Amino acid sequence: MNITSKYKNDLDWFIGFSEGDGSWQVDNTGKPIFIINQQDPQTLYKIKKLIGYGTITGPYFNKNAINSYHRYRVANLKGTEKLIGIFNGNLVLFKTKHRFSEYLDAFNNYYSEIGNDINKQIHFDNKTIRPTLEDAWLSGFIDSEGCFNCVVVKNKITKEPSTVSLRITLVQKSEPEVFKYLKSLLHGALQHEVKKDAYRLSCNSVKSRNIILDYLLKYPLKSKKTIAYSLFKKLHVRITDGKFNWRLQNRRARQRLFRLAININKDIYS
Questions:
Q1: Is 216 part of a structural domain of the chain?
Q2: What is the CATH number of the domain that holds 158?
Q3: How far apart are CA 169 and CA 176, in angstroms?
């Protein structure tokens, strides 16, 4: 990412997180507004502290929704200018570049029309950016869009749990080039769900899981998803350390691992 700052890792994480959960909007007066909705307000307070602008409100409740959410919102001139400086030329996904370009056009038009003292129009920087394992963009994107998942496989005869299958997944609509790149970077498996035009990247192999888990040691997650990550890593290490054999483990030892797998699958990090 093209950021030079002592907060580079935090800002790279913020860009990745925003490309998953952020929303670049224009209100009915033509004013640009940036919004992130989250169930966990603590993540939003971390973002507000990093950016130095914005408000956090909530909780809000959707119709028929069990969980509430909070909202981080930036609408003032100084905060919007700072966000533009962070995002412009540093976005990865095609769709977020498109939304940001409309947001930037709205900024140029809105503040010139109301007579604010803006020195010049800000031009959209559409350069191609690819995340690496040496920046924190992917950590932010996993925090917003990633899923740590365990599938408990039962014995066909006894119907008791016999083993677990581990995977880390990322899903996004209409981003073939970026997800083909991430497939190569992470040594994962890529599926295209044609009806939804969604790309699903699954990291099922020990090699691909090790790549992500080692990466997240260097660039840690910042949301409640760290809970699922910690449990997932513990289970991954336990069953890949070369000492574990499902058939030789006693029933009590297997049950402990299955409980760990079930806890990972709980919706504790949405």
A1: yes
A2: 3.10.28.10
A3: 15
Could you give the 3-state DSSP secondary structure of residue 4? coil
Q: What is the span of the domain harbouring residue 150? A: 137-265
Token pair recorded at residue 79: 């905060």
3-state DSSP assignment of residue 152: strand
Angle CA 211–189–257, to nearest 5: 60
The answer to whether 58 touches 71, Cβ cutoff 8 Å, is yes
104: number of CA atoms within 13 Å, CB side?
A: 21
pTM here is 0.87
Q: Which two tokens stand for residue 252?
A: 């009590």
Tell me the pLDDT tens digit for each residue of 49-102. 999 999 999 899 887 667 889 999 999 999 999 999 999 999 999 999 999 999
171 - beta bridge partners?
200
Q: Are 90 and 15 in contact (CB under 8 A)?
A: yes
Query: Contact at 8 Å (CB) between 189 and 183?
Result: yes
Using only the alpha carbons of the chain, give its radius of gyration: 21
Express the helix, strand and coil content of the chain in percent, nearest 5 each: 45, 20, 35
What's phi and psi for 7, nearest 5 deg? -100, 25
In a domain, 94, yes or no: yes
Within 10 A of 216 (CB to CB), how many other CB atoms are there?
20
The Cα 160–Cα 248 span in angstroms is 15
* Cβ neighbours of 235 (radius 10 Å): 20
**192-248 pLDDT per residue, tens:** 998 889 999 999 999 999 999 999 999 999 999 998 899 889 888 877 765 555 554
Structural domain count, the chain: 2
